[in-house]
Design goal:
6 helices; mainly alpha; 134 residues
Amino acid sequence: MLRIVLGIVLIAHGIGHSMGPIGAFKVATTNPGWNGDSWILTGVAGATAAQAVGLVLWAVALVGFVALGFVAFGWLPEAWWAPLGIVASIASLAGLVLFPMAFPTFSSLAAAVVDLVVLASILWFHWSPAELAA
């Protein structure tokens, strides 16, 4: 049961990263106070480059966390847990740092908590979903 809950949380977290490109490319408004810019990248590299970096970061986080949920369900190899979790979490955190206004505040805080919990579970506790009962 816990593996199912973990998988659902990770997949939902991954899908939540779609709000970044949706807001950056003005498909919909994810945070009315955000115009698609990065506080640091836009001034240095321009809006197009900043949006491209954001798109890559959010795509990596989206695919990574959905795949991580599949690992939790047992649909993908357990060996993928650590590399996927580390890469997806770092991409997500980088997106949050570079584009802090991309998401509503609560969403950003919740995303950061999930990212940090995943990183801590892998790097400090060396935990994997295999330790949960199926």
